[in-house]
Design a protein that fits this description.
With 445 residues, the chain is α/β, with parallel strands linked by helices. The chain is built from 20 helices and 13 strands. The strands form 3 sheets. A 6-stranded parallel β-sheet has the order 3-2-1-4-5-6, with helices on both faces. Strands 7, 8, 9 and 10 form a 4-stranded antiparallel β-sheet that branches. The protein is globular and about 50 Å long. The structure holds 6-O-phosphono-alpha-D-glucopyranose (G6P) and manganese (II) ion.
Length: 445
Amino acid sequence: MKLTILGGGGFRVPLVYGALLTDHAEGRVTEVVLHDLDDSRLYAVARVLAEQASTVADAPTVTATTDLDEALRGADFVFSAIRVGGLEGRANDERVALAEGVLGQETVGAGGIAYGLRTVPVAVDIARRVARLAPDAWVINFTNPAGLVTEAMSRHLGDRVIGICDSPVGLGRRIAGVLGANPREAFIDYVGLNHLGWVRGLRVAGRDELPRLLADSDLLGSFEEGKLFGVDWLRSLGAIPNEYLHYYYFNRETVRAYQQAEKTRGAFLRDQQARFYEEMRRPDAAALTAWDRTRAEREATYMSENRETAGAGERDADDLSGGYEKVALALMRAIARDERTTLILNVRNQGALSVLDTDAVIEVPCLVDANGAHPVAVAPLPDHATGLVCAVKGVEREVLAAAESGSRASAVKAFALHPLVDSVNVARRLVEGYTAVHPGLAYLR
Ligand code: G6P
Ligand code: MN
C-alpha cells in the first residue's frame, strides 16, 4: 500500500512515519512517498526517517520527489500537510493582525483567514490533480485551517477527503482520564467546526459521565481545559470547549498576550525550525536526536501565552506527546482494513448538524469503515454555540468565494464578518496589509 505525504519535508512527518513503524499487520503501508517543493527539507526529513527505520525489519520504504504528479500516481492514501508561505508566512499572518489589535493565530480570527486565503487555491489544485491521477485514493487533510481546507477539497473530491485534527482527541482523552474512564470505551459527544467545538457529554456504558465532572471542582480544575477556561465558566457553559475557544472567550487577554510576547508562535517556530533544518545539513548531525529535542521544545511551549494569561502553568506530561499521528493511522487502518471504529473527523455535514447545509464540513464523531467516514447525527448546539459556528462557517464560505473568484471584496467581507474582527475598516486594512506581505495573495483583485 502506497502512502504519499504532501509537505513531506515538514517537521511532523517523522511522527507519522513513527506510527507506521508500529504497524506490522497485513495490509499496512509498505511504501511512503514524500513530496515537497524544497529538496533540502526532503533530505533533512529523510535522514530522520532513515534513523527511525534502522532497527525495524519491515519498515516502509521511503522515496522523495519534488514532482507532485509523480508523487500522486498510484497512491492509495494521500496525506496533505502543507504550509503555503512557510512559517515566515505564519509569522506575517500574526504580525499584521496584531498590529491592527486583532488576533493573529494560525487558524482562528484574522490570521486564520489570511492563511486560508493563500492555502485554498493550492489545496484545490492538489484536489483536482488527485481526482485526475489517483481517483481511488483517500485524502487525509492535515493542512490548516483544516476544516476550511477540507471543505475546499471536498468540492472536488467529495467524501474521499477527510480532515483531521488531534485537539478533540486530546480533549476526549483528558476528560476520560480525569473521570477514570477508558477513552476507548467512551463515546465523546463533540461537535462544531475544526478548532471550534464543544464536548457536551461523555458516555460510558450508556451513562453520561460529564455531569459528574462538572459537579466536581477538583476534577474540573485538574486538566488543561479546566485550567484554561476556569471551573466557573465551564459550569456556566455546561460543556467543555475545545482549547481554541480560549481565543474567543478570552479574546482581549489573548490578543494582548500575543502582542506582548517576545516572539509570536509563528516567529518562534520559524526560528526554531530554521535551526533544525540548518543542523541537518551537517553530515555528522544526529538527525533523530536533533529532531526529537526540537519536537519536545515545540510541544512544551504550545499555547504558552494562553496558559500564561489563564495562570494555567505548565502542560501535563501526558499532553506532550500529541496524538496527531495516531488519529491519522487509526483512520487509515479503519478504511484500508475495514476496522470499524468511531473517530472525531472533519467531514461534510450530511444532516448531522441540522443548522448547517449538507455540504458544510463540520467536526463530528464519525463511524469509519471501508466505505469512509459517516458522521453521526448529534443533538443541536445551544444558541450561543450555533451563533459562533454559523458566523465562522459564513466567513469560511467568503474565503472560498474569494479564492474561487479572486474577488478582493469577498476577502474584505470574510475578515469583516469574523466575530473577532471589530470593524469593516480594520478588515480593509487587513486585506491591504496581507496582500502587501504575501505573494500568495496576488490573485486578489
Ligand atoms: C494542535 C492543533 C494543530 C496544530 C498543532 C501544532 O495539535 O490542533 O492544528 O497544527 O497543535 O501547533 P503549533 O503551534 O505547535 O504549530
Ligand atoms: Mn488542529
